[in-house]
Amino acid sequence: MKKLYLHVGYGKTGSSALQSWLATKTEELEANGFDYKILDKNSINYNISSGNGAFLRAYLDNNCTEEELINTYFSSDFDNVIISSETLEMDESRIKKLQSFLKRHSIEMEVIAYLRNVYDCFYSTYVQGVKRGGLTASILESSNKINPMRHIDAAETYCSLIENIKFIHYDTHKADVALPFCIALGLDYSAIGEIHPTRVNRTLNKKEIDVVKFFVEALRYKNEAKAGDVSRLISDYLVNTYKDIKSEVFVHSSILELFEKKYSSTISDFNSRIGHKHGIKIQLLDEKDPRLQWTNEHNTEEKLGLDREIVNTVFDLVIDSRQKFNNLQLANLSLALKTDFPGLARKVLDYINNVDLDADILRDSALALEGINIRHSAYLMELAHISRPDGTFINKKLKEYEANKK
Asked: Which one in 58, 81, 151, 274 has a CA-CA gap of 20 to 30 Å to 208?
């Protein structure tokens, strides 16, 4: 009888590192009777990946046939199959659909899930929003919008529906997430090989967060570029290129107090009913964590100025990827850079001045911003003038803007 070992994450618990380890140890796993199909080749290079659960997720969402699911994961001669993806945070209906499939094909299942402390979950989720979703709100603004208990909520659902499940405390094993996974599978870790020390999908540090937000805001004008497209381009580059940069965790005292009031009793109840059974203890925060940077509401969002080295690095990336952005978005980037990075602003203008600018778009955008940011309007009208120097209306508006300055 085949057995499925299903690793479901959760998000921000070292899944990309574990999946990279699995992808680079397929021969050793096969020698021990385990099959791990590589469906995302990014994992081989220890880059951000989504694991190998895409077809299973597609099946659960009715976008993949049962035959395709079997051919993808269960057609080999191996008795043990590993599927890993943090996108498999399943609700009750998906769990039951999977259980029905496994029952029809006489496949056993063991679920493995990593949990983490509550504040760490919140902070990592917030930074992930900056990285992958184009989030520009402050951490204070996000404290009432992000559910820091989503791991615990999902664990409760799994426990109510799945008998064979193993929880692992990520914060206890984050230095080596593969070791407890091997133990859960009954494998000899030394026979498979240790996880590579390279960090995968690391958290951005404060300087990087500020730069990502800056470029997202500069390049997202009238939603012409989805914020997430911009942030993913930049953050993936930073994370995959500078893998060993250390990241801090900013602990905001008022947020911690809020979480303590809201969740302490729930955490205690979870630990007594479920955590104790699995040998784990979820905390609000491990105050001995050396990454912690304690702060208060007055300086959490303090602007210390954008890091010039990171700005230059990201600027080069954006210019190399400029086909992703239109001239108006680049014009807005030039404006954003103009005060603190005039040299980079000039480089943007040198580029867009050598292409065919759409004077009508620039003119209309300038007019639309008159009641919001007159400086911005004047800048865009100047660019319209470059494209159409003899434009009567454009020249008239430029004179008006100049008179307003005086």
From this structure: 151
* Alpha helix stretches (DSSP H) within 12-79: 15-24, 26-31, 54-60, 66-73
Q: Where are the domains of the chain?
A: 3-116+146-197
Dihedral, 271, 273, 274, 278 alpha carbons, nearest 10? 80
Give the fold, CATH level 3, of 3-116+146-197. Rossmann fold (3.40.50)
Burial class (CB in 10 A: 0-12, 13-18, 19+), 367: middle
Instruction: With H, G, I as helix, E, B as strand and everything else as coil, classify residue 151.
Output: helix
The pTM is what?
0.81
H-state helical runs in 164-252: 170-173, 178-185, 189-192, 206-219, 227-241
Contact 311, 211 (CB under 8 A): yes
pLDDT (average), residues 121-128: 93
> Percent of the chain having pLDDT more than 70?
95
Q: What is the DSSP string of 327-361?
A: HHHHHHHHHHHTTT-HHHHHHHHHHHTTS---HHH
In the chain, the amino acid numbered 368 is A
Residue with tokens 């990827």: 321
Q: Report the pLDDT averaged over residues 308-317.
A: 95
pLDDT digits (tens, 9 = 90+) for 77-117: 999 999 998 877 788 999 999 999 999 999 999 999 999 99
